[in-house]
Amino acid sequence: EAGVTQFPSHSVIEKGQTVTLRCDPISGHDNLYWYRRVMGKEIKFLLHFVKESKQDESGMPNNRFLAERTGGTYSTLKVQPAELEDSGVYFCASSPDLAGGSGQFFGPGTRLTVL
Amino acid sequence: DAKTTQPPSMDCAEGRAANLPCNHSTISGNEYVYWYRQIHSQGPQYIIHGLKNNETNEMASLIITEDRKSSTLILPHATLRDTAVYYCIVRVGFWGAQKLVFGQGTRLTINP
To answer: Any bridge partners for residue A34, and if so which?
Structure first.
């Protein structure tokens, strides 16, 4: 079974440019999450989709970040315009919907560097 | 904020059991204990979770105290590849699962 995949693995852009990160969850997983780790700090939650709907976007830092999950399959996270403090590793995770809870399965991450 | 307390670092000899403690004294009745690890800069990896009974899978065992205020993750025969940062997280388990709140975790080093 294929795991969570993310594209690109690395992205280097200049301040003010736009970058779009993509996440393909495990097939059949309704829950999709975005997290990020910046500057060696703790991993922080960004938002959570249930199918195509945003269940919780309390972690989105500001309106320069836009996440979509059209059709409830893959998701994109766009940063426009990018700032220096956006540099970090962006992780995507997915999980099935189980009453007893389930582990979230993470992708390898996208390392974003804003110069 | 994370609801758990873990030692910042631990060492264990290869081949021995690694026992990682976690305190979660404010855990609610409907909250599960989850363990994840992050090896170097890879994505976090789910290990195990439990509510009140001890759990075991192919990776580890989870021992939860009767009052549920603390737990221990046990890696029965640690290998060098188990060197990682281990995170203990409490969260509600229900339909439409909640976000994970990561703390600092425990940096486990397996020594040859």
So the answer is: A47, A92
CB B62 within 8 A of CB B93: no
How far apart CA A86 and CA A89 sit, in angstroms, is 9
Give the whole-angstrom CA distance, residue A12 versus residue B101: 28
B34-44: pLDDT as tens digits: 999 999 889 99
Phi and psi of B81, rounded to 5°?
Answer: -70, -10
SS3 content of chain B, % helix, strand, coil (to 5): 5, 45, 50
Q: Do A108 and B43 touch (CB under 8 A)?
A: yes
Is B51 touching A (CB cutoff 8 A)? yes
pLDDT tens string B18-30: 999 999 999 988 8
Is the CB of residue A36 less than 8 Å away from at least one CB of chain B? no
A103 closest CB neighbour out of B46, B98, B99: B46
